[in-house]
C-alpha cells in the first residue's frame, strides 16, 4: 500500500514541500516516492542496529516513509559516494516517472540529500562511510 504523500507533506516539517519546490515537480506523490526511494536505499545498506540509530534522527513523518515496506534483510554494500546511492536507486526504482536517465536520477537524488541534510545530522552517524559524509557535507555547504 502506498503512503498518502499529500497528507505527509502537510506534517513533515517542510521536507516534501521543499524538495518538491526545488525539483519543480508540482506533485507531492512523485516527490514522496523519490524521498522514499532515497531513504530506502540508505536503509538497505544499514544493519538493523544502524537503522535503529538512524531512525532516532528522523521526524515522525520521515520515520513512516523510512519503515514503509521494510523487510529485514542482510545489509547491502556500504554506500561510499553519492554516485553509489544513485546507482542503487536507479536500479531499484519502480516508479518510471521519477526520471528518464541517470543524469536526471543523480540530480534528483542530490536535491533529496540536500533537503535531508537539513533534517538529519549525517555527521553524527558513525556507520556512514566517511567519504559519503564528506561528499554530502561539501554538497550542502556550497553556496547556490
Automatic annotation (TrEMBL):
Organism lineage string: Bacteria, Pseudomonadati, Bacteroidota, Cytophagia, Cytophagales
Protein name (Swiss-Prot/TrEMBL): DUF2267 domain-containing protein
Species per Swiss-Prot/TrEMBL record: Fulvivirga sediminis
